[in-house]
Amino acid sequence: MTLRDRLPSVSGSFYEEDPSALQKQLEWCFLHKVGPGALPRTPPAAAERKILAIVSPHAGYVYSGPVAAHGYYLVSGEPAPGVVVILGPNHTGAGAGVSVWDGGEWVTPLGKVAVERDLARSLAGTGSAEADTEAHLYEHSLEVQIPFLQYAYRGRDFKILPVCMMLQDYVTSLELGRALAGLLKGRAALIVASTDFSHYVPYSVAYRKDALVGDAIVKMDARGIGDAVIRENVSMCGPGPVMAAIVAALELGARSCSRLCYATSGDTYGPKDQVVGYGSFAVSR
After folding, report:
1. Residue 18 lies in a domain
2. Model confidence pTM above 0.70
3. Which candidate, 15, 26, 7, places its Cα nearest to that of 108?
4. 71, 116, 253, 278: which has the fewest Cβ within 10 Å?
5. pLDDT by residue (tens digit) across 199-251?
6. What's the domain count of the chain?
């Protein structure tokens, strides 16, 4: 049976479609005044992997790319993991409540990335996700992470495990996080939790409310993340991926979480009357 590759859905809109233009756009993200101010680096031969998970935004690159670049700059300084688990929210409403891609490779203008299909089948076997491609076909939250991974890990092999979450309550996130931790123990893996924070609120409101959620992330308090989103009515679109990533990272030995960058669309590209908030965090052993 020939597996269907996952073709780009938002190239030409969220990010550049031409490979050369996309590479220049990624460089712009890293060198932007809000970005890390440097391009991805090659790790020294004796480097060890310490980063278990990052939280990364998923809007159009002109808006959230400089914030996302902080996490990818950090991981570029470590050896590439064998598998990158990408957890993203479901914006389309298609597919299962929690969907793991079990199809063919993912395609971007920078090339193809293989899927860790054995791991996908194992995750589906835990009952915490369903093998399903429908949820992924037009979902941008996972797709926009992949060119960043390809650029950060240039010349280094890795596979991906894409997981799309329509259900984002704490219990679902807890079950998924625990299942991932069980499957990833002993493996060189990175978890990417894809989320944006407040949507279309005044600049000062985004900073105030998103800081409360960010505090819970830094404390690695998975339940507290969900509680803050509900209590403060934060229009965060990916609390589930972040909670699941925190649960998994803690079970894999995480000891700290750092806030790398927070900014809004008003800081990167646009007016400040109605903004979307973006955060980049790193969870380390």
Report:
1. no
2. yes
3. 7
4. 253
5. 999 999 999 999 999 999 999 999 999 999 999 999 999 999 999 999 999 99
6. 1
